[in-house]
Specification:
Elements: E1 9-13, H1 19-28, E2 32-36, H2 40-47, H3 58-66, E3 70-73, E4 84-87, H4 102-111, E5 120-123, H5 131-144, E6 153-156, E7 175-179, H6 182-192, E8 199-201, H7 205-235, H8 240-247, H9 272-281, H10 287-313, E9 322-326, H11 341-351, E10 355-359, H12 385-389, E11 393-396, H13 405-411, E12 414-417, E13 431-434
Parallel strand pairs: 1-2, 1-4, 2-3, 4-5, 5-6, 7-8, 9-10, 9-11, 11-12, 12-13
Antiparallel strand pairs: 6-7
Helix pairs in contact: 4-5, 7-10, 10-11
């Protein structure tokens, strides 16, 4: 087997926040892409030149549809047409915080019977070291009758997305690639080199899997550190935001991280615990990771306590108060609410007797989520002086550029600000409580 790509037709499996941008990037590079997904609504959207992700304009889909380089299907037999299949499906945790590889393995079972000799399969879903070789490989081999590294190529290349950052372009983000064999790695490097400016080969799938976990563990641990410092410095009468701004003037040996209401999204709250689970299998404990998880998980409850403190200061109990959550998405300027700390804050407020509503210009209606299904269908309230004035307190959980926080400051009597948004706006009518 050689490292050359005989023809450029690939399948991207899983058309979500990772798969759709990747499919478009390959299509822009002249590769014929068949996007596969079990969600027929996503398939129909792509085939009618529409987009279901806020940061992917419909024009980007339409351009590749007109060029004949992008199509979508629910038929996994289309894998037989492709030289490569890239798996971009979710890897959540169970309620016991164990890895849930069901999406990956079910995808493998679906594509294995249609896998052709010489084809390449790449896993992009974040997971623990050993998954590609120990979990994915046996399923593909059993279903196809082919041998990985002999009859077909197998590799891992972790996704790297920065949603909400308009300066982030998938083609400019270096791509790590590890293969089951050196030939598998070379084949994957050749594929990604068609669409990405820099490809970084590593010695194995395990190294590539471990590198992705390190990236996200690094972020989660440092956010936990600054969240803990926030609590300590607040007790000392010191503003953590001012401290970080001062510290980041050091031109070496420091990288700024910022406190918040808790972690959200499909990566940082989840991925570190994949390594925790795998480490236990080797008789080891990940004390640093687990401590960071405890600190970050406690932040939403602290936000609720801060809101109760603010209301109490005004002579009002939390029970019976009208509370507005500003921002449901886990991150500013995105429409993704997976694992958002807003849900924990809302549920805790509701359990303590508060009347809870939310506003998010990017999420007009709460979708069905795995962990917080009870909120599905609730709609974002209007952003107007009348509506904002009707709440006893507002909690800024997510800082969206599209939200007029100045109006909030004029209308709300109290604001709990977890993102330091109000500090840049100057004096306002509302009393501001940082959290």
């Amino acid at each position: 087997m050689t490292a050359a790509i005989p023809r450029t037709k690939i399948c991207v499996i899983g058309l979500g926040y990772v798969g759709l941008p990747l499919a478009i990037q390959f299509a822009k590079a002249g590769v014929h892409v068949v996007g596969l997904d079990i969600d027929a609504t996503k398939v129909e959207a792509i085939n009618t030149s529409a987009s279901y992700l806020r940061h992917i304009p419909a024009a980007a889909v339409a351009e590749q549809r007109r060029a004949g380089l992008l199509e979508a299907s629910t038929d996994f037999q289309r894998v037989a047409e492709a030289e490569a299949s890239i798996i971009c499906v979710p890897t959540p945790l169970t309620k016991q915080r164990d890895p849930d590889l069901s999406f990956v393995l079910n995808t493998a079972r679906a594509i294995a019977p249609h896998l052709r000799k010489g084809a390449l399969v790449v896993l992009e879903s974040t997971t623990y070291p050993g998954t590609t070789e120990e979990e994915l490989r046996p399923v593909l081999e059993a279903g196809s009758g082919l041998v990985a590294g002999v009859d077909f190529h197998l590799a891992f290349s972790p996704e790297r997305e920065d949603p909400g950052n308009p300066q982030s372009r998938i083609g400019d983000i270096p791509k790590i690639v590890g293969g089951l064999t050196s030939a598998c790695r070379d084949r994957a490097v050749a594929l990604y080199s068609l669409a990405v400016g820099r490809v970084v080969p590593v010695s194995s799938c395990r190294v590539a899997e471990a590198a992705k976990l390190l990236e996200n563990i690094f972020r989660g641990v440092n956010i936990a550190l600054v969240n803990e410092l926030k609590v300590i410095y607040e007790r000392m009468g010191i503003d953590i935001w001012e401290v970080v701004e001062a510290a980041k003037t050091k031109p070496f040996g420091f990288m700024p991280f910022y406190p918040g209401p808790g972690l959200g999204g499909h990566c940082i709250p989840i991925d570190p615990f994949y390594l925790t689970w795998k480490a236990r299998a080797h008789g080891l404990n990940t004390r640093f990771i687990e401590l960071a998880g405890e600190i970050n998980t406690a932040m939403p409850l602290r936000v609720v306590d801060r809101a109760a403190e603010a209301l109490n200061d005004a002579g009002r109990p939390l029970k019976g108060s009208r509370v507005l959550i500003v921002g449901l998405a886990y991150k500013g300027n995105v429409d993704d609410c997976r694992e958002s700390p807003s849900f924990v804050i809302m549920e805790t407020l509701r359990d303590r007797g508060a009347h809870v509503a939310y506003h998010d210009p990017h999420i007009p209606k709460i979708p069905v989520t795995r962990e917080h299904a009870a909120w599905a269908g609730q709609e974002s309230v209007a952003w107007s002086q009348t509506v904002l004035s009707s709440f006893d307190i507002a909690i800024i959980v997510t800082a969206h550029n599209a939200v007029d926080h100045q109006l909030l400051g004029q209308c709300a009597p109290m604001i709990v600000d977890t993102r330091n948004v109000m500090a840049a706006l100057g004096p306002c009518r509302a009393k501001i409580w940082k959290a």
